[in-house]
Design brief:
Largest sheet: 4 strands, antiparallel
CATH topology of the largest domain: Butyryl-CoA Dehydrogenase, subunit A, domain 3
Order of helices and strands: HHHHHHEEEEEEEHEEHHHH
Distance between the termini: 28 Å
Number of helices: 11
CATH architecture of the largest domain: Up-down Bundle
CATH class of the largest domain: Mainly Alpha
Helix content: 40-55%
Shape: globular
């Protein structure tokens, strides 16, 4: 079994790492403090071909693979987890849902702008009473000639306040339950779509997250994703499987970023006449952090390769997301502790990384859901 990354993958890592260090890291604390999304830096990601990494060139992509995209999310998240998830939602959820399920005409119309960074994409599934239980969504779509009329509310939707293209889920036949759900490509300019409350969050503060309100929203019938009703629930669940690998990569990057900050601090900080790392108890805590990061890394890359190779990846994505997000929460918490009082202050990035890490255990399916997925596969 070859654990070495290809030269192409190594090139992507180096390119994205340099971009993140130069374009994101210097201002990451300010983005977090003010809740500002680095839109100009994000557009530069598009110009470098990073946003469209997993899509064919014919749709405006870079012709890479899913692992390339995962490596990019990881590198970005080392310095700014919020930008990491905004990128992931755009590429894996919005563009991914379109690429895997849309008609050829829909792909050619929408993917080039999303893949290039000219427009930001969003994914509207969660509702006030339909989080983990996505099938309980109340948003409805009624066919009216050559258009659909959508009514409902979506919450906690990443990128929504600044997005221009949405994949929105709504029921076209309530009597069929999940089998009556459909997916639509909705443009910000369509009549009847608006942004409600923009969330004030504990972490990933520069990522823009808000409500999407649909009040008699007019969507052309040609924007029914794939031009097929009743496939929305399966589209949503399959898309989330891929999205979980993106969240796992985000979590892995956050953990790695906090680990490197702790390592640097322990080399520089002296107490009782010696560097912190020379205290065996503290050094062993770093060893535990290193172990959890490496365990998570292989599960994340394994899930990405399963998707690359056309293998079933739902369970491997669940493993990766659970392991990496728990690792991120453990490593960032330990990093704050190793910094002592300084770790609690905003002068150092580990407190931000700790706040960012928590959400990775919750969104894209809570880690309790990942346990359900894995245990269900064990006993199926």
């Amino acid at each position: 079994m070859d654990f070495n990354l290809s030269r192409e993958h190594q090139f992507i890592i180096q390119m994205v790492r340099e971009f993140a260090e130069n374009e994101l890291k210097p201002n990451a604390a300010e983005y977090d403090e003010k809740g500002i999304f680095p839109l100009e830096a994000y557009k530069k990601l598009g110009k470098h071909g990073i946003i469209g990494l997993p899509f064919p060139k014919e749709y405006g992509g870079s012709g890479g693979d899913y692992l390339s995209y995962i490596l990019a999310v990881e590198e970005i998240s080392k310095v700014c987890g919020a930008t990491g998830i905004s990128y992931s939602v755009n590429t894996s959820l919005c563009a991914g849902a379109i690429y895997q399920n849309a008609t050829e005409e829909q792909k050619k119309k929408y993917l080039p702008d999303i893949a290039s960074g000219r427009k930001l994409g969003s994914f509207g599934l969660t509702e006030p009473n339909a989080g983990t239980d996505a099938a309980a969504g109340q948003t409805v779509a009624v066919k009216d000639g050559d258009k659909y009329i959508l009514n409902g509310q979506k919450i906690f939707i990443t990128n929504s306040p600044i997005a221009e293209t949405f994949v929105i889920f709504a029921s076209t036949d309530r009597s069929k339950g999940p089998k009556g759900m459909s997916a639509f490509i909705v443009e910000k300019a369509f009549p009847g779509i608006s942004i409600g409350k923009v969330e004030n969050k504990m972490g990933i503060r520069s990522a823009q997250v808000g409500e999407v309100v649909l009040e008699d929203c007019i969507v052309p019938a040609e924007n029914l994703l794939g031009l097929v009703e009743g496939k929305g629930f399966s589209v949503g669940m399959k898309t989330l499987d891929g999205g979980r690998i993106g969240v796992a990569a985000q979590a892995l990057g956050i953990a790695e970023g906090a680990f490197e900050e702790a390592k640097k601090y322990m080399k520089e900080r002296k107490q009782f006449g010696k560097a912190l790392w020379k205290n065996q108890g503290l050094a062993w805590r770093m060893a535990e952090m290193d172990l959890r990061i490496e365990q998570a890394r292989y599960l994340v890359y394994k899930a990405a390769m399963d998707k690359n190779n056309g293998k079933p990846y739902g369970v491997s994505a669940a493993r990766a997301k659970w392991a990496a997000s728990d690792a991120a929460m453990y490593v960032t918490t330990e990093a704050v502790q190793l910094f002592g009082g300084y770790g609690f202050m905003k002068d150092y990035p580990v407190e931000r990384m700790m706040r960012d890490a928590k959400i990775t255990q919750i969104y894209e399916g809570t880690n309790e859901v990942q346990r359900m997925v894995i245990s269900g596969d064990i006993f199926k």
